[in-house]
Write a structure and sequence with these properties.
Blueprint: E1 17-21, E2 33-35, E3 38-43, E4 46-52, E5 57-62, E6 76-85, E7 91-100, E8 103-109, E9 113-120, E10 123-132, E11 143-151, E12 154-159, E13 162-168, E14 179-184, E15 191-202
Antiparallel strand pairs: 1-15, 2-3, 3-4, 4-15, 5-14, 6-11, 6-15, 7-8, 7-14, 8-9, 9-10, 11-12, 12-13
């Protein structure tokens, strides 16, 4: 597992924390480089994910491997991100509980709202439809922190430290593996960029 020195005081490792990646160096778990219209790379302490085309579309990346060896389980995931280029309707999404490209769960953030959905055998099922929240920092380049906690039989979702929803976790035992997805929502811009400041994962 990767530990790196924190570039900010509020990202220091906490109790039970087994991963903190600050992107001060090329990532140990994300595959960097170009892939068609999409790209992923580290720059100045950020993981930069970009989608460069005039068309609308979705681009996602996945961690190369689970964060924890079995039988450990991921009980909390947290990322801090910012939308640094694109259209106000673009969205950035934390992906987790990844089994394969057709089965995972997602916590998505837009300019004014959030959404929780699950992809099951390639079909998207809304768990929480788009919902507005005053917790969201909605301006370009403003930072937002997303957190998901697996607490008993509940999944708790937080934006900037405020719990916005709680749902039944069902049979979910871990949040591993994780990924990130962006959605370019307009043809009036030529690229969409999201940057991730850090990723924390804990037991």
């Amino acid at each position: 597992m990767l530990f790196s020195c924190s570039k900010q005081d509020d990202t220091s490792p906490g109790q039970g924390q087994t991963l903190q990646e600050d992107f001060d160096a090329p990532s140990a778990i994300w595959r960097e480089g170009d892939s068609g219209n999409g790209a992923c790379f580290t720059r100045n302490g950020w993981l930069v994910i970009s989608y460069n085309t005039g068309a609308m579309g979705t681009y996602h990346i996945w961690a190369d491997a689970p964060l924890f060896p079995a039988p450990q389980s991921t009980r909390s995931l947290e990322i801090r991100m910012r939308h640094s280029a694109g259209h106000p309707d673009d969205t950035g999404t934390l992906l987790f509980s990844y089994a394969n490209p057709s089965n995972y769960v997602a916590f998505s953030l837009g300019q004014d709202g959030y959404r929780v959905f699950q992809v099951v055998n390639g079909q998207t099922v809304n768990i929480v439809t788009w919902t507005s929240s005053p917790a969201i920092h909605s301006q370009l380049n403003e930072e937002n922190t997303l957190q998901v906690k697996l607490a008993g039989d509940k999944l708790q979702y937080f934006i900037n430290g405020r719990k916005v929803t709680e749902i039944n976790a069902g049979e979910m035992m871990t949040l591993d593996r994780i990924g990130f997805q962006l959605y370019k929502a307009s043809t009036t811009t030529t690229n969409t960029v999201y940057e991730v400041d850090y990723i924390r994962a804990s037991m």
